[in-house]
Amino acid sequence: MTEQELMQQVQESFKNDNPRSYQAHLQSRPPQWEQDAVEVVCQAASFCHMHVVHLSYAGCLDVIAKTKADPNKRLSVETCPHYLMFDDTMIPDGDTRFKCFPPIRDADNRERLWQGLVGALIDMVASDHSPCEPSLRRPGNMKDAWGGLTGLQYQLAATWTEAYRRKASLLDMARWWSYNPCKLAGLTDTKGSLEAGKQADFCWWDPRHVAAPNSYSHEYHRWKGDTVYASDANLRGRILGTWVNGAEVYRGKDDVHLGDPVGRFHVG
């Protein structure tokens, strides 16, 4: 499909709906587009390790399963917290904070993504964090607004909230958010698990705490109030402390950052 044909699909989707319509946005990015893209990635996995980013359409899991079952192909897959937490019925028309690509789909699709994640067809959860200045959000205009959700610091709690409901474990969380991403990046010799000799990057996590994140911590955003996660009173889990390379950098109990930055870039 050419770029012109893609743009025509977008225009047709909004033709009979006003720009506020989330369903029009959803229809402007049909599942077949994602299916076609994932099939191309799976075909290329015969030649090198390929990675599927931001999987939103559970219909792709069949070709992903076939590809992963082939010993001659190398494939890894990620999805994002918003695809695991929300469905299209939760999104009000005009609330452009939820606009993303691919779009958030229906509730049955969300449950199938969870099955794929728990069943290891999906290897990891990644953020797709996308902040922007408020004018680009274009509130009320799903057609022209900036795409991508903000709220990186709330996504661990968002994932755990839904994982807990489905009886997933904290070991699952560590695999999805830590070990498998480090494995993809080739960093498991220094990161991704708590072992002697590895870089001590970890957080102290209370999995039983349930509250809205902005009820116990500040929103350290340049543009505040732009995230769909912060005021959710049912988010489960709270970070009580964070260490980077063995140095405490955040004390969640007091909601303070400690000392100068101690992180360093890894160039692959």
From TrEMBL:
Any GO BP annotation: purine nucleobase catabolic process
Domain Amidohydrolase-related residue range list: 160-226
Source organism superkingdom: Eukaryota
Composition skew (Polar residues), residue ranges: 1-13
Pfam families (alphabetical): Amidohydro_1
Gene3D superfamilies noted in UniProt: Metal-dependent hydrolases (3.20.20.140)
GO cellular component, as recorded: cytoplasm
GO molecular function: allantoinase activity
Residue ranges, annotated region (Disordered): 1-24
Protein name: Probable allantoinase 1
Species: Seminavis robusta
